[in-house]
Amino acid sequence: MSFDRSIKIAPSILSADFANFGQEIRAIEAQGADWVHVDVMDGHFVPNLTFGPPAVKAFRPHVKTVMDVHLMISPVDAYIDAYADAGADVLTAHVEAGPHTHRTLQAIRGAGMKAGVALNPGTPAEAVEHLLDLTDVICVMTVNPGFGGQKFIDMTSKIRKLRSMIGDRPVHIEIDGGVDPTTAPLVAAAGADVLVAGSAVFRGGSVGNADVYGENIRNIRAAANSVL
Ligand SMILES: O=C(CO)[C@@H](O)[C@H](O)COP(=O)(O)O
Ligand SMILES: [Fe+2]
């Protein structure tokens, strides 16, 4: 993954048809997805359960772009090797998931993946200030994690602060939650480059009608690019 500051759309397969992940992943990539976002939830760190390493490993052969795995689990460290083995390209852990995020990011890179750190809406930008040299992706949550389809929470001042803290380091700012053609310009103008979108990509479409995914992806990207 070479560093690229342009807007990237990362559909979250949390909004896909759970009986058809392979086809859904191939459909969103054929329709212009830049990354594929995989939400891992443990029913403990967040009040919802999704998939673990065997499911993520089964997704891998279908992903030709970047498999971006968002861990909403605690603890994290015991599972890092399993997600490396499953084929994650980016592995993101929450800074709120435990006291040793510095060690976690080192371990993620040590296992051969890009390291991401996610911030809940209530967590300040300063929580990652001393982690920037170990981080490839900062994921700014614009909903409280756990579910798709929630209302966007404005985090633009946090995004601006992070962009200035990052300086010229090759660190992506990813936005996750409630991203659609209305909210995408706000976060893009503030300095985000990776836009996760679940409901706004899958809404109205299906694997049999995947052109709708393409139209939704193009609309989000165009809205974001319109302010750059
Ligand atoms: O991590 C999460 C939710 O916890 C996200 O990745 C959601 O899946 C995004 O869904 P939308 O808000 O775009 O519907
Ligand atoms: Fe996510």
TrEMBL record:
<feature type="binding site">
    <location>
        <position position="39"/>
    </location>
    <ligand>
        <name>a divalent metal cation</name>
    </ligand>
</feature>
<dbReference type="GO" id="GO:0019323">
    <property type="term" value="P:pentose catabolic process"/>
</dbReference>
<keyword id="KW-0464">Manganese</keyword>
<feature type="binding site">
    <location>
        <position position="178"/>
    </location>
    <ligand>
        <name>substrate</name>
    </ligand>
</feature>
<dbReference type="InterPro" id="IPR013785">
    <property type="entry name" value="Aldolase_TIM"/>
</dbReference>
<dbReference type="InterPro" id="IPR026019">
    <property type="entry name" value="Ribul_P_3_epim"/>
</dbReference>
<keyword id="KW-0413">Isomerase</keyword>
<comment type="pathway">
    <text>Carbohydrate degradation.</text>
</comment>
<protein>
    <recommendedName>
        <fullName>Ribulose-phosphate 3-epimerase</fullName>
        <ecNumber>5.1.3.1</ecNumber>
    </recommendedName>
</protein>
<feature type="binding site">
    <location>
        <begin position="176"/>
        <end position="178"/>
    </location>
    <ligand>
        <name>substrate</name>
    </ligand>
</feature>
<dbReference type="InterPro" id="IPR011060">
    <property type="entry name" value="RibuloseP-bd_barrel"/>
</dbReference>
<feature type="binding site">
    <location>
        <begin position="146"/>
        <end position="149"/>
    </location>
    <ligand>
        <name>substrate</name>
    </ligand>
</feature>
<keyword id="KW-0479">Metal-binding</keyword>
<keyword id="KW-0170">Cobalt</keyword>
<dbReference type="InterPro" id="IPR000056">
    <property type="entry name" value="Ribul_P_3_epim-like"/>
</dbReference>
<feature type="active site" description="Proton acceptor">
    <location>
        <position position="39"/>
    </location>
</feature>
<feature type="binding site">
    <location>
        <begin position="198"/>
        <end position="199"/>
    </location>
    <ligand>
        <name>substrate</name>
    </ligand>
</feature>
<feature type="active site" description="Proton donor">
    <location>
        <position position="176"/>
    </location>
</feature>
<feature type="binding site">
    <location>
        <position position="176"/>
    </location>
    <ligand>
        <name>a divalent metal cation</name>
    </ligand>
</feature>
<feature type="binding site">
    <location>
        <position position="37"/>
    </location>
    <ligand>
        <name>a divalent metal cation</name>
    </ligand>
</feature>
<feature type="binding site">
    <location>
        <position position="70"/>
    </location>
    <ligand>
        <name>a divalent metal cation</name>
    </ligand>
</feature>
<dbReference type="GO" id="GO:0046872">
    <property type="term" value="F:metal ion binding"/>
</dbReference>
<feature type="binding site">
    <location>
        <position position="12"/>
    </location>
    <ligand>
        <name>substrate</name>
    </ligand>
</feature>
<dbReference type="GO" id="GO:0006098">
    <property type="term" value="P:pentose-phosphate shunt"/>
</dbReference>
<keyword id="KW-0862">Zinc</keyword>
<feature type="binding site">
    <location>
        <position position="70"/>
    </location>
    <ligand>
        <name>substrate</name>
    </ligand>
</feature>
<keyword id="KW-0119">Carbohydrate metabolism</keyword>
<comment type="similarity">
    <text>Belongs to the ribulose-phosphate 3-epimerase family.</text>
</comment>
<dbReference type="Pfam" id="PF00834">
    <property type="entry name" value="Ribul_P_3_epim"/>
</dbReference>
<dbReference type="GO" id="GO:0005737">
    <property type="term" value="C:cytoplasm"/>
</dbReference>
<dbReference type="GO" id="GO:0004750">
    <property type="term" value="F:D-ribulose-phosphate 3-epimerase activity"/>
</dbReference>
<comment type="function">
    <text>Catalyzes the reversible epimerization of D-ribulose 5-phosphate to D-xylulose 5-phosphate.</text>
</comment>
